[in-house]
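Record type: monomer structure entry
Structure origin: computed from sequence
Chain ID: A
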Amino acid sequence: MRIDIITCLPKLLESPFSHSILQRAQDKGIVEVVVHDLRGYAVNKKKQLDDYAYGGGAGMVMMIEPIDNCISTLKAERDYDEVIYMTPDGETLNQQIANELSLKGNIMILCGHYKGVDERVRERFITREISIGDYVLSGGELGAAVLSDAIIRLIPGVLSDETSALTDSFQDNLLAPPVYTRPAEYKGMTVPEVLLSGHEKKIEEWRFKQSLARTKKRRPDLLDD
């Protein structure tokens, strides 16, 4: 898989892709993440990316020309399964969306900034709009990192134990059950005996019941689905 991220603040994305699972996935050659500095596609010597909004009002708007230049250049090099715009009014990211996108080959992600992008960008280039929650960030970079992380960890070969991703919260519309590790007793707090029994069927039954109970308590909306 290849993920191309378009941003006017590329340094914001250096750290998320330089550590842990995301770094290892790139080192293994399983995924390629390329960050593109939008200023390299600006239309004037000032490297201008934004301008005042028609009709007035506070905040600047990202111009269509630099974005067009960048997207068109990338599309001339390869085909993309999705061109995603990170925006608060997009569909809310969930595990099902991450699962779907993890099966794609090439994805482009556009990070918004300021008051957003010229609407004509969304009309002409964007195939999908995604939000990571009902709140507003300074730009789409952190959202792009979150989306990329959610996708990349699902690709076969990224995690050392590929079954790990399949037991994550939300994969079956349930929250994950409690987990424990050594020591079995700590300051009077003990691990449930069933987890120490070695009885796989009983352990799976216990985990399912715990997942169901936790979901009913914390996210009953998931059970409605």
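Annotation 1: The longest strand covers residues 82-92.
Annotation 2: The domain at 167-224 is CATH 1.10.1270.20 (Trp Operon Repressor; Chain A).
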